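Worked example 3. Consider a protein that binds zinc ion.
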Amino acid sequence: MPDCLFCRIIAGEIPSKKVYEDEQCYAFYDIDPQAPTHFLVVPKAHIQSAAAITAENEAVVGHIFTVIARLAGELGFAGRGYRVVSNIGEQGQQTVPHLHFHVLAGRDMTWPPG
Ligand code: AMP
Ligand code: ZN
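Given these inputs, the predicted complex is written out as structure tokens:
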């Protein structure tokens, strides 16, 4: 396993507040929430970022979006809308190099993002 914060969270070595888990992905609340609801959905397999998605690992991305849509319904914010964001690399302001999708809900978002 690479020495990776999110791999260690998935492994249970670092505590997190779990939203959802299955064999392919793990979802947990962001430690520094930027909206009333803010959680992250990550593949259990270590993938550096969305820039490292290939024909070999692309299926997990579709799965994660299926999970997000289901959670949005279950957690009650699907109707009002929400935002899914994945930061990539240095200028994209990615701080943890393990692919993750931010799910933000519960307030009006602004555009363009900063
Ligand atoms: P990014 O900056 O897009 O790479 O997103 C990384 C996110 O991980 C940030 O929103 C952080 O607040 C969040 N984060 C960092 N450490 C933890 C942790 N231990 N538990 C939950 N979220 C974390
Ligand atoms: Zn990792």
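Take a moment to read the result before moving on. The chain has two helices and five strands. The two ends are 33 Å apart (CA to CA).
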